[in-house]
Amino acid sequence: MSTITEKIFAIKTESAFEKTALAVFQLQHENCLVYRQFCDILKINPAEIKSVNDIPFLPIEFFKSHVVTLSVVEGPNSKIFTSSGTTGTVQSKHFVSDVSVYEESFRKGFEHFYCNIEEYCLLALLPSYLEREGSSLVYMVDDLIKSTKNPDSGFYLRNLNELSEKLKSLLAKGQKVILLGVTYALLDLAELLSAPLSGELIIMETGGMKGKRKELLREELHQILCKKFGVNVIHSEYGMTELLSQAYSKVNGIFNCPPCMKVLIRDVNDPLKILEPGKSGGINVIDLANINSCSFIATQDLGILHNDGSFEVSGRFDNSDLRGCNLLVQ
């Protein structure tokens, strides 16, 4: 397993991604019982899988009803991440046998988009996530906070006045700051500001109103946050419990994937059909860091893929559960 993991995080070209993805498919088809049974129902012959477009994508709902893993390993380096869900819904569970793979994925992913994390002070406003156990987002952000090696980096729960003063102080000293937060909490903080901030500030929203506020179109939300915080653009993070990699948007809700992750779009009426770029449909994610569960996930998000591999999230299927990590934009 270590050899293929090394290959996953060494991907630099499209051909390397394709070759590694096909190898991961064969590995998971053979060793992940749930995924193999799903493929059997579809009468998939693994020998006939010649490209990533041929690979079947496991509906994300399986993480609620089944243990999706190659092997259940309970040890000091294993972890079970759970989704936030809402009252009365079933949580997704992601069994991670080696959490160091997750750590390598999110560290390399963040570095890919934002370079050296030690240049930043990272402030995290994630009240709904901090108030429960098993959040993969909190695990990631906690590690990134420590990686900044900045004593001012840290989590904030509901002490918004303190956070507001901290932001002003750091920016006045010329410190580069990333403020990462759940959407409703960022709006709460924005309303406390008497004037826009100035300095090297990145506002990054992870989505999620958590029933605290009315859902807003992405354009409206970002316009409000830009005006209140005094920034030109709002960054976004696209991740979820069932994945170990994240895509990031630096402008206009257009997301880009790290080298070990790729998005395809499926036909909403024929889930086995992959659409050409430019057409709207269901978002399929290939996350090769999911080496010990399933790397091929059919999400309940709707979106559109661009020719350069970037993508936009345009909403969710009507019959899907609300997901805190993804912003409902339409």
Cα radius of gyration in angstroms: 20 Å
Let me know the largest β-sheet.
Answer: 12 strands, mixed
Query: Which structural class do the helices and strands define?
Result: alpha/beta
Stretches where pLDDT is under 50 for at least 5 consecutive residues are 320-330
Q: If classified by CATH, what would the architecture of the domain at 103-238 be?
A: 3-Layer(aba) Sandwich
| Mean of residue pLDDT values | 91
> What is the fold named in CATH at topology level of the domain at 103-238?
Rossmann fold
Principal-axes geometry comes out as globular
Identify the CATH class of the domain at 103-238: Alpha Beta
Order of helices and strands: HHHEHEEHEHHEHEHEHEEEEEEE
Distance between the termini: 41 Å
Count of DSSP-assigned helices: 10
Total strands: the figure is: 14
Strand content: 15-25%
Question: What percentage of residues falls in helices of 4 or more residues?
Answer: 25-40%
SSE diagram, text form:
Blueprint lengths: L1 H7 L5 H18 L1 H9 L16 E2 L2 H4 L13 E4 L10 E4 L2 H16 L5 E6 L1 H4 L5 H13 L5 E3 L3 H13 L3 E6 L1 H10 L8 E5 L12 H12 L5 E4 L8 E3 L4 E3 L4 E6 L13 E8 L8 E10 L5 E6 L14
Parallel strand pairs: 1-13, 4-5, 4-6, 6-7, 7-8
Antiparallel strand pairs: 2-3, 8-9, 9-10, 10-14, 11-12, 12-13, 13-14
Helix pairs in contact: 2-3, 9-10
What does this structure look like?
The chain is an alpha/beta fold. The chain has ten helices and 14 strands. A hairpin with a 5-residue loop joins strand 13 (296-305) and strand 14. Helix 9 (183-192) runs parallel beside helix 10.
